[in-house]
UniProtKB/TrEMBL annotation:
Residues 203-234 form the 4Fe-4S ferredoxin-type domain. It comes from Neolewinella lacunae. It comes from the Bacteria. One of its GO terms (molecular function) is flavin adenine dinucleotide binding. PANTHER family: PYRANOSE 2-OXIDASE (PTHR42784). This is GMC family oxidoreductase.
Length: 573
């Protein structure tokens, strides 16, 4: 098959347009470089009336809001999801790994929860603290200046609380707690679990001329038409396209492999156009992989160079290894004191106004690491799937189960806003035996070899999940709540842990390490063995934390972009 090669050579070719790819493109383009971005999905701009899903009514959908290609409903901004037709993956044995992929400009940042937390000083050297896993080759002090830059560029609301491992920041004003969050905060005080204002990347006051201010529609998962919430396309790539450099977008293009020359230097990215199903190459002086942790690992596995037959940059044998996702579980309760509550507009942002950062002392507990608690409930606009617990509430209140018409509508109005839930999101320990690899003989519809996954939870994660349930139940019970699940899920059911991958925080498949025999990337997010290839997604993480990874992805991407500029100045690239 003929491969069409472009004669143009870009300063950098970036695979992926999400948090890492978008930030890398922004920094390099602002410095005057010519950039190519290869994105596996279509162009997307939530301000375009033909693409807008924000403030659309369920009656505008032929499925009344239910989704077909969108896992969370027709108007969810995330195209694709857990399963993509023609793009399979497999699991081995009793592995239940779930792999979410978002094929569109901006990637997962179009629909994420926008919980924007810095890693803390302890999170970079956990091995020193509990003897498990591996320390990062960098420390908080190395990345703190980049967190500062991300905060100021993107915008994040919150409050400074002087918490040692939940660093203070440059915060925008947070929204006021809603009624169910006030209840939760007071209950937390009773049981010794402190709640503080949430830290989310929605703009609550004007920060520049490119972005509007949040108007509390509560539909951030639909992508914001005024760019008030953070998405990589709207807040990084679009502004960068107006700057000193040049950005060319290659959308609907599925990256196949990194092309190298006889010396092992990367020279191009090969991709399949989904529009004409032909293979192309786009040349670059620097190659940046930011396609998501597992997709980047797949791309490296499918790339070869002289002496690198097990995958590009895989001399350590750790490519695909140390894959880990956040832990996650939770439950909810009916709060009788919130029944028949006064109804008023309480939408707020599309996420939590308060949360509980990790408060525990692991020396007194039977598991390592920690977690945070997220709060949900209130009077937000009903979405597709609303009413799923209606019959359970009817049982609790002694009502006749079921119904229709005006009697059921009356009961729904009585109950709405009286259900409050909490979810825990925690850190798992990175293990060599949790990994992804190429599935021999299997390819997707583009002819690209696919992945298979090996993953097991350990007692570290199971016991952490049990503690999450204990903590959540204490708070909900202190609110006077009647739990929907009175019993904590059993050990045999992993204490209710969601399947690995389900939280969509997977990291670590090309981890950074100072020793080339122990990791794929160096401390600057660059491949040890191919110095003009950088990884700016979560594949480079040495470990996760009890925080969401997006803020650290962007901070590391900015840091890596600065390193690229420095190496260019030294004529090393």
């Amino acid at each position: 098959m003929q491969i069409k090669e472009s004669s143009k050579e870009y300063d950098a070719v970036i695979v992926g347009s999400g948090a890492g790819g978008g930030m890398t493109a922004k920094v390099l383009a602002d410095a005057g470089l010519n950039i190519a971005i290869i994105e596996a999905g279509p162009y997307f701009d939530p301000a375009d009336k033909n693409m807008r899903t924000q403030l659309r009514g369920t009656w505008e959908s032929p499925r009344r809001g239910a989704g077909t290609l969108r896992s969370f409903g027709d108007f969810h901004a995330g195209l694709s999801g857990w399963q993509i037709p023609g793009e399979p993956y497999d699991t081995v044995g009793d592995t239940e790994f779930q792999w979410w992929r978002t094929r569109m400009l901006g990637g997962r940042t179009n629909h994420w929860g926008r919980i924007s937390l810095r890693f803390g000083p302890d999170d970079f050297h956990r091995k020193d603290i509990d003897g498990l896993g591996e320390n990062w080759p960098i420390r908080y002090e190395d990345i703190a200046p980049y967190y500062d830059k991300v905060d100021k560029l993107v915008g994040v609301f919150g409050t400074n609380e002087n918490l040692p491992n939940d660093p203070d920041s440059f915060f925008l004003p947070p929204p006021k707690p809603r009624l169910h969050e006030l209840y939760t905060t007071e209950a937390g005080k009773k049981v010794g679990i402190p709640m503080i204002p949430g830290r989310l990347s929605m703009v609550t006051k004007k920060i520049n001329e490119d972005r509007g201010v949040c108007f509390y529609c509560g539909q951030c998962s639909r992508a914001c038409s005024v760019y008030a919430d953070f998405s990589a396309g709207t807040c990084l790539i679009f502004p960068a396209m107006k700057g000193k450099g040049q950005i060319d977008l290659f959308t609907n293009c599925m990256a196949r492999e990194v092309i190298t020359d006889a010396s092992g230097k990367a020279t191009a990215i090969s991709y399949i156009s989904k529009d004409d199903r032909r293979e192309y190459q786009v040349k670059g002086k620097v190659i940046v992989l930011a396609a998501s942790a597992c997709e980047t690992a797949r791309l490296l596995f499918n790339s070869k160079a002289p002496g690198m037959t097990a995958g590009l940059g895989n001399g350590s044998g750790t490519l695909g290894r140390y894959l880990h996702d956040s832990t996650g579980t939770g439950t909810s309760a009916l709060i009788p004191s919130l029944l028949d509550r006064e109804l008023y507009n309480e939408d707020g942002v599309g996420g939590m106004h308060v949360y509980a950062p990790w408060w525990g002392n692991n020396k007194k507990l039977d598991f390592p690491r920690g977690y945070h608690l997220e709060v949900w409930g209130g009077l937000g606009m009903p979405s597709y799937g609303f009413g799923g617990q209606l019959t359970r509430v009817q049982e609790m209140l002694g009502y006749k189960v079921g119904g229709y018409g005006n009697p059921m509508l009356k009961e729904v109005k009585q109950m709405y806003g009286a259900v409050v839930g909490m979810s825990g999101r925690g850190e798992s320990v990175a293990l060599y035996d949790n990994y992804c690899e190429i599935n021999p003989g299997k390819v997707d519809e583009w002819g690209i070899p696919t992945l298979r996954f090996h993953y097991k939870w350990t007692d570290h994660e199971r016991l952490q999940a049990k503690h999450m349930h204990v903590s959540i139940r204490e708070i909900l019970t202190a609110m006077g709540g009647e739990l929907f699940e009175p019993e904590i899920p059993s050990y045999e059911s992993d204490h209710g842990l969601l399947a690995p991958g389900a939280i969509i925080h997977e990291v670590g498949t090309a981890r950074m390490h100072d020793d080339p025999k122990q990791g794929v990337c160096d401390r600057n997010s660059r491949l040890h063995e191919v110095p003009n290839v950088y990884v700016t997604d979560a594949a480079s993480f040495t470990s996760q934390a009890d925080k969401n990874p997006t803020w650290t992805i962007m901070a590391l991407a900015w840091r890596a972009a600065d390193h690229i500029l420095s190496e260019r100045q030294k004529m090393n690239i």
